[in-house]
Design a protein that fits this description.
The protein has a single domain, classed as 3-Layer(aba) Sandwich (Pyruvate-ferredoxin Oxidoreductase, domain 3). The longest helix has 22 residues. It is an alpha/beta fold. Helix 1 packs across helix 5, helix 3 packs across helix 4 and helix 4 packs across helix 6. Helix content is 44%, strand content 23%. The protein has six helices and five strands.
Amino acid sequence: MKKAQYNITFGGIGGQGIIKASELLGWAALYEGYPVKKSEVHGMSQRGGSVESHVRFGKGFFSPLLGAGQADFLLCFHADEHERLAEFLKDDGVDLFEWLDKAAAMIDNPKMLNTALMGVLAAYLPIRQPSWDKAFETVFPEKIRQRNIEIFNQARHMAQTAINP
């Protein structure tokens, strides 16, 4: 059953692709027909500083920023950021932190961790494949797009199998 709105907090450190991942989700939700709001918060303006992004899609919100206890999903790309961002997760929200090591183990290039974790998140969302495909075309350059789609689909399948064995 679709919910009225979906609220996701992403977190990690600079250079991990948090902004790219939230951009991918924003476009996919938009192509699926949802109203979308997105915000990003950069810590140090260099590689390695804290970065968080909030994506909201659906109906009934005005601000792109999430407050404490409002995230339906928390997706951290770096273990050190998990504790800092845990306050955003709703009591009944889904913490995808357990997938960090599993996603890292399935890739051969650390630059694709964001794509693998997006595949995990996608297993929980009501966004269909054509919308994801169009989002990948929008966000990723052609030379790296196909490999990112493969990683995304592999991770989504892994998560779907774990969610619905």
